[in-house]
Amino acid sequence: MNIYTTEKSQQYLTRVKSFIDQHILPIEADILAENRRLNHSSDWTQWQLSQQIEALKAQAKADGLWNLFLPDATLAQGLTCVEYACLAEEMGRSILAPEIFNCNAPDTGNMEVLYHFGNEQQKAQWLSPLLSGDIRSVFAMTEPDVASSDATNMQATIIEDGDDVIVNGRKWWSTGLGHPNCQVMIFMGLSHPDAAKHQRHSMVLVPLDTPGVNITRMLTAYGDYDAPYGHGEMDLVNVRVPKGNVIMGLGKGFEIAQGRLGPGRIHHCMRAIGAAERALSLAIKRGQSRVAFSQPIIKLGGNLERIAQARIAIEQARLLTLNAAWKIDNLGVKHAMTDISAIKVAVPNMLTQVVDMAIQLYGGAGMNHDTPLAGFATMARSLRLADGPDEVHMAMVSRLELAKYK
Amino acid sequence: MNIYTTEKSQQYLTRVKSFIDQHILPIEADILAENRRLNHSSDWTQWQLSQQIEALKAQAKADGLWNLFLPDATLAQGLTCVEYACLAEEMGRSILAPEIFNCNAPDTGNMEVLYHFGNEQQKAQWLSPLLSGDIRSVFAMTEPDVASSDATNMQATIIEDGDDVIVNGRKWWSTGLGHPNCQVMIFMGLSHPDAAKHQRHSMVLVPLDTPGVNITRMLTAYGDYDAPYGHGEMDLVNVRVPKGNVIMGLGKGFEIAQGRLGPGRIHHCMRAIGAAERALSLAIKRGQSRVAFSQPIIKLGGNLERIAQARIAIEQARLLTLNAAWKIDNLGVKHAMTDISAIKVAVPNMLTQVVDMAIQLYGGAGMNHDTPLAGFATMARSLRLADGPDEVHMAMVSRLELAKYK
Amino acid sequence: MNIYTTEKSQQYLTRVKSFIDQHILPIEADILAENRRLNHSSDWTQWQLSQQIEALKAQAKADGLWNLFLPDATLAQGLTCVEYACLAEEMGRSILAPEIFNCNAPDTGNMEVLYHFGNEQQKAQWLSPLLSGDIRSVFAMTEPDVASSDATNMQATIIEDGDDVIVNGRKWWSTGLGHPNCQVMIFMGLSHPDAAKHQRHSMVLVPLDTPGVNITRMLTAYGDYDAPYGHGEMDLVNVRVPKGNVIMGLGKGFEIAQGRLGPGRIHHCMRAIGAAERALSLAIKRGQSRVAFSQPIIKLGGNLERIAQARIAIEQARLLTLNAAWKIDNLGVKHAMTDISAIKVAVPNMLTQVVDMAIQLYGGAGMNHDTPLAGFATMARSLRLADGPDEVHMAMVSRLELAKYK
Amino acid sequence: MNIYTTEKSQQYLTRVKSFIDQHILPIEADILAENRRLNHSSDWTQWQLSQQIEALKAQAKADGLWNLFLPDATLAQGLTCVEYACLAEEMGRSILAPEIFNCNAPDTGNMEVLYHFGNEQQKAQWLSPLLSGDIRSVFAMTEPDVASSDATNMQATIIEDGDDVIVNGRKWWSTGLGHPNCQVMIFMGLSHPDAAKHQRHSMVLVPLDTPGVNITRMLTAYGDYDAPYGHGEMDLVNVRVPKGNVIMGLGKGFEIAQGRLGPGRIHHCMRAIGAAERALSLAIKRGQSRVAFSQPIIKLGGNLERIAQARIAIEQARLLTLNAAWKIDNLGVKHAMTDISAIKVAVPNMLTQVVDMAIQLYGGAGMNHDTPLAGFATMARSLRLADGPDEVHMAMVSRLELAKYK
């Protein structure tokens, strides 16, 4: 319990925690093993969904633990950013949980874009099936041929042509592109190369079955295809979609991107904190149960200090993130810019350290797929790059800091 | 502004900040230089007080910015722990400020002990002049001959003898012992060697002019005598004081110590955060104003990343400390044990890093006495040892963490 | 060039470097992609060898760049430990190279065991085909059910039964067990549970096709099966092999293990240094060729400082390892115990840092299989656990350090 | 013993070590306490020399352990850079030792300048009394008003005027300026502001008693005046010295500076390594002899791991420095540029860590003047700034690294 907790969030927290403890964790290893069997190949067109996960999704939906991330009291439960944050942490304990509660990235961010910036037709066509969990989606931004840490580098094009726009370009690290239910992407590209820097780009909805969308491969992250989601690479060649698929209007890409980022980073970071709590817990249990040199290994060398440092780092990371969420709710995203960049740096690095410690305590068992640790490690590594590398966010923090002195 | 702020603390914060900005910072360098002139010798009996500081104390007292640390609405302003915390941060910006507001350690801790545990006579005799700022005091705990990180090691003795107790033993790092106005110490010693571990020690008030109190020398911390306070070493040989000087009763030493610690650590840590803010600010200003290799040095190498890391670390440290204070206020010290040890580890280490960065940016000027940086560095170093080294607090955090699994 | 270089090692270095540059690096990505195609499944019984690698092995053998690790002038080129060290570094630049030069772990260590401790029949039967590169081998030591960082924990048994021994137990992380050519393992187990601590275990050669050897699965390391080698798990149930398969005699397991360790760690560490050099080189080239925020990314933030830190760390790691090798050659393994443990800690941690920096500079491309970086990262992670985790080696170093004061 | 040792260096090492162990260490604390008594004031004009040190100097001179740093077989013992390096390490164990063997900075560097670049008259007038230990000297380079990390920033001027040059400018951190025997400075200033960047500055010998040389104060480093040496600040106002005092000729300042730097950094770094060895040794002895929580404190928490990390870091730092020295001797300074900058970064940071660990183990006793630790800590802090801050040297290393790819 802490100062950020509300009664409402506390109630949902109890229910989410109970669902995860009762329904997910006991069969988590089974589901992950089944997933490896079903999806052992790099050929994503053969990937299949786990029916156990589908069943758990139906149950979560029936229990009203569904779309909790969406700050809408009708379509969802109307939780604030800070209220949802503690639920996101809880979901982060299991790699499987976010999907089961329909709170998984990148769908959550895409749903938020459609919710905040989509028109009625776009909402009917894409937001509804996403909210119901029937389809999955992709956010196509990163490009292989340019340093995408500078988003203004993006070279893919979105060109008006009568009532349509024509989309061309190469994207990669499009997470979820291999998912059997993935049907649509939000594609960001250059529409007005001569406009002011942050008015050059647009976002357009592109159904995956549009002619000219060529998925070329799925990428591994540290050897893992992350099936059945996958991180896809694709070429779009003269892909024609109606202008009505453009979100908010041409040239609004950066405006939308800004709006998408704040809560999304809170979610990512809180999930990472949940993962860190799980890793710490696993480390302690393992360290207490295994014996070497006549001692439980938790008592050897600097292990207890590392446990303490992990606890201290997690607490700081959580407070930093909750405070950023509180600022978003109470002061607005524009007053939380330092905070949002700060958590993007601090939290994945904290997770990296905590998971590394846990793996080191586990020994070989920590590196293989018998525990969630290797998955968390890869997640931590990805998060230090995804959505802007640490360095870009440090640059943002220092820029805002220096601006105080002008 | 943050979630922990109350209207009352905000009002005091504005006043304290204004006092520091208007009255202290403009003459801080002058006062420190005067202090070096007045107190250049290692012979503490020659040390003198700065009349500029005495004048500022009178002014702060007149302005009602006095004893803000004390949670009593009559004797002081009745601020909660979390309300005072942000004022302590503000005071931490200048090494001079805590004294000027009569909020300096170890007097604050000693006043709290007397306030919470002293009897009426003890309060009349010692608390009153301390609250008025007329005398200074010492907390005599650490001993040169044993590892004092384990407080149960303490060997100094407090032996009943009729209506008196007789005190013997050697203490050091008794901060403030060289101060011209220092008149009394709270002395901790062994009274019941055969009792249960935490009922063996007692605390007794010993006036410095009691026969048998022999101050042997002042110690340097990194070469600095910290005049006119000083870190003293002393031998007590058959020092006789009335039993009425024992606080709470014999055997209550650890009970008192526990009560003293929580708020005191909040104060120390918040002052350290204020020091870190000052150091960061100095670093940025210096880095923007000096040029090397055709660039302001703030733009060279990894300097901007270090600025960002400092900002991120400070924010985390502040939230961790404020949250610990909030827990003390709302849940009680017993529910904040992890937090109180966590800040004791995290905050001084953060300050160490931030100050080191600032000094590195400053070059030679950062090491000498022209800026507060070297003083902050020494303070950070001391804080990692004082009141229990990092390692003891990490051991506490890990012990509490493992206890969750039993 | 440095003080450790001999003319002989310099000549071989030139040839090995030239072979790698001309024959391996240009097709490295092709071979790795082919390997992913051939061995995309987790079913190791389907794994196949790359014919490109087989061809390169033949060429290396023909060129006399073969078995360079073996300190024998007849069977190999008679290079000293320090002479081979710089070749191992060179080979470490490509994950493929050690196999191509028949210098891959764990075969090198197994060949050394047979070379130093095997009898004539064991050499004829197993050392010869290993030296010719016709078969591969496994070292079966780590067990899933005990903390194997303390080797005396090993529970698998080797029991005399007439002219045979009977082997029982479960092993995992047996690297190479999935390789199509893997035919034999050196199995370590408990033979004399009541003997002195380091005389309880034995090593025995067990052909993989012996009845009772059941390979249960291959393990992933961070999601990677490391095909066609694999890290295997197996159950041995009443596996009967002739006593003649015992190496050196029963109870000699630890003695052999000690002898195996020194040079093996040099090899591992020098390969890791080669990997670090490759990673640094990739980072610089990438950083110079990509542009963000109007600058080559190498010039942004703290990147150049990280390049410098990588260079400094690599140089220190190399000198530490070469010096350990020099001590093994000139003073003997027993006088290099601190050094051998020191490199085991320092070098994989250095590699971890350098590769992490390179990946961070690369962005998403650094995490997937288009570069060797993710492979190096997994290798670094494994090396911090394999052959004793960091913590065990730090314990060794501190134990030897404290012993100086007795 | 290591590969860099020669028979000659080994012999001198034995003698130096024996001298320090027998004659210096037993009275080191006494001498330091005497020094604090003699030189307790900030008024450097009152500073006095310890007669104990003067006696030890005479003895070292008589024993032929004198000027060992100088690579001249007639004036000294003709030791190479790498041969002297291990002696410098040995001397680094005691803050007092370098002076006693006439191997103290900045005199060593100044003597090298005169030896390599001075003319006969300059040698007769200044090198001789420096070599005999009769006078002390200063190197006046750093300026308070500019970022001196960029040496081309220097603003002090050296202007030709007939047969004289006229020197103007403000310098600080001129180490040794407070020493009673200090008689001369090597002053670097701008003589040709319009010349090519590295031909603008000159070095000139300025006797301290020349009219216009005004010493304004001594600076503290972390509160320590470092008496009787002192770090001085001075104003030179129209100081006139004969042109014959210019070293090598006007415009040669940078050329001389380059030549001065290589060996000087080796000496500094090796002394720092000696200090680290001493600190490690003190830490272990303290940790073994003090008990807390029923254990020798060396066994608590992560202490043993920190001992191991210190050992590993020291070994790496020593090899890096010895290898740089070996390169200077065998390949020339120009081929050791990366190495010389690398040690400047690595070694003081290593010392910082090792000393910090030792102080943390010592508790309060580590911070005061009863042990050499606080002095080593201040030395480490200074070394990270002196002679170019870490950042400048990292920039050099990365520049040389990137140059490999052009």
TrEMBL record, chains A, B, C, D:
Domain Acyl-CoA dehydrogenase/oxidase N-terminal: 6-134
Domain Acyl-CoA dehydrogenase/oxidase C-terminal: 251-399
Domain Acyl-CoA oxidase/dehydrogenase middle: 139-232
One GO process term, biological-process aspect: fatty acid beta-oxidation using acyl-CoA dehydrogenase
Protein keywords: FAD, Flavoprotein, Oxidoreductase
Gene Ontology CC terms: cytoplasm
Gene3D superfamilies: Acyl-CoA dehydrogenase/oxidase, N-terminal domain, Butyryl-CoA Dehydrogenase, subunit A, domain 2, Butyryl-CoA Dehydrogenase, subunit A, domain 3
InterPro entries: Acyl-CoA_dehydrogenase, Acyl-CoA_Oxase/DH_mid-dom, Acyl-CoA_Oxase/DH_mid-dom_sf, AcylCo_DH-like_C, AcylCo_DH/oxidase_C, AcylCoA_DH/ox_N, AcylCoA_DH/ox_N_sf, AcylCoA_DH/oxidase_NM_dom_sf
Cofactor(s) listed: FAD
A Pfam family: Acyl-CoA_dh_N
Single GO MF descriptor: acyl-CoA dehydrogenase activity
Top-level taxon of the source organism: Bacteria
Entry's family note: Belongs to the acyl-CoA dehydrogenase family.
Cross-referenced PANTHER family: ACYL-COA DEHYDROGENASE FAMILY MEMBER 10, MEDIUM-CHAIN SPECIFIC ACYL-COA DEHYDROGENASE, MITOCHONDRIAL-RELATED
Protein name as it appears in the record: Acyl-CoA dehydrogenase family protein
Organism per entry: Shewanella algicola
